[in-house]
Every structure is written in C-alpha cells, then in structure tokens.
Amino acid sequence: MAAAVGWDPAHPDGDRLLLGAEIALTTVLGLAMLRVSTPLEPLASAGQNDLATPFHALLHAVMTRDNG
C-alpha cells in the first residue's frame, strides 16, 4: 500500500508513508472485525456506497505526501 503512493525507505517521508499505510490497514481490519462480530449500527448495515466517502477521506489523510 505504501509502495503504491511512492514509498521508498530512503526518502525522508518514507517512515510517514509506511505509518500511513499501517494505519489504513489496521482501520480496515478493525472495521471488518466490528462488522462481523457486533451489531453496531449504522456500521453493520452500511453498504459500499456508505463507506466509500469516509474511506477515501481516511486514505487521503494518511497516504498523501502533502499532509504535513
């Protein structure tokens, strides 16, 4: 995931991009676990369209070089 946005261990932003990828991955895993194990609404019944915008915002926040 980090490589898809230009991660390079030698680049000064390398650690930040890798951390962003790890945050995105753990968020997705946590979401999947909650959706399967609990009836937490509206998450449990949210469809792809309901999740797309928040996921896009999350990925943009943690996976772009220009976010400071």
TrEMBL record:
Write down what this protein is called: TetR family transcriptional regulator
This chain's source organism reads Catenuloplanes nepalensis
